[in-house]
Amino acid sequence: MKPILLQGHERSITQIKYNREGDLLFSVAKDTVANVWYSVNGERLGTYNGHTGAVWCVDCDWDTKNVLTGSADNSCRLWDCETGKQLALLNTNSAVRTCGFDFSGNIIMFSTDKQMGYQCFLNFFDLRDPQQIEDNQPYLSLPCSDYKITSAVWGPLGEFVIAGHENGEINQFSAKSGEILKKAKEHTKQINDIQTSVDLTMFISASKDNTAKLFDCTSLDHIKTFKTERPVNSAAISPIMDHVVMGGGQEAMEVTTTSTRIGKFEARFFHAAYEEEFGRVKGHFGPINCVAFHPDGKSYSSGGEDGYVRIHYFDPQYFDFELEA
Questions:
Q1: Helix, strand or coil, per DSSP, at residue 252
Q2: Could you tell me the strand order of the sheet in which 107-112 lies?
Q3: DSSP string covering 2-68, please?
Q4: pTM confidence score
Q5: Running DSSP on this structure, what letter comes out for residue 319?
Q6: Residue of 253, 250, 214, 238 lying closest to 294 (CA atoms)
Q7: Which of 110, 79, 106 is nearest to 94 (CA)?
Q8: pLDDT tens-digit map of 210-269
Q9: Which of 71, 239, 308, 316 is found 20 to 30 A from 293 (Cα to Cα)?
């Protein structure tokens, strides 16, 4: 089936996210706009307007009531998903790089960049306490002095946050005490993206060191490695098959010097158990910045440096294969 092309951004896509049912797809880009689309036909539902800088991250809670966005305009904003109304504005000292709702949708976390003399912080707010929002006072604020957080997701049961750093480290931060519960250093370069499996038992990390790696969420045990020849910008785990999809390409500044064929702008499918690549999907005219599987596993989306979001439908059973003994 032909991919659905979503043209709602003027600059490169920074993140895409499906809601839990998978009927909506959220996309944010460097052009200050957050869009929401019907995933089934690519119709745009609306936009969340208010940011004045590049929007780095987006998340949606479990019942699709609220949307959270973090931006380079030094703010994290909470929106009403249905009406597009801004519910809360949390100002920060530096750009907001990652954000997310925990499983209950009551607690949000976001991390800020290390820039302009300010260090990187991981902040936790409880949305049930309006005073925290009003005073802009998180109930927990963790400084990360050494290396800034480049990607972060909630772990199972909302007990901790799994954060990837610019030096390739992965840490578990407790959402209650703020202490570092576990550490792992399997990557040699910056972690670009972290995404969990649908049941929150595993997560996949995409790194500049040309690999994506699969980890156990609670123990941070390293399970698998998927190798490519280019930096990996994003990776996602299929909810129904033992597959992962990865998107990458070279650095944005080197793109103009190569042809699209050499640029490796395909989405690449790997088998999660055998670590073997078994498929590629072309499409973007530039590196792929983010990938996401639909919760039913029958389609995936990718957002590129070219400012387009593409929804690709496929039949996963055609992808199921056994290696010859």
A1: helix
A2: 96-101, 107-112, 120-126, 140-144
A3: PPEEE---SS-EEEEEE-SSSSEEEEEETTS-EEEEETTT--EEEEE----S-EEEEEE-TTS-EEE
A4: 0.91
A5: H
A6: 238
A7: 110
A8: 999 999 999 999 999 999 988 999 999 999 999 999 998 766 556 555 554 554 578 999
A9: 71
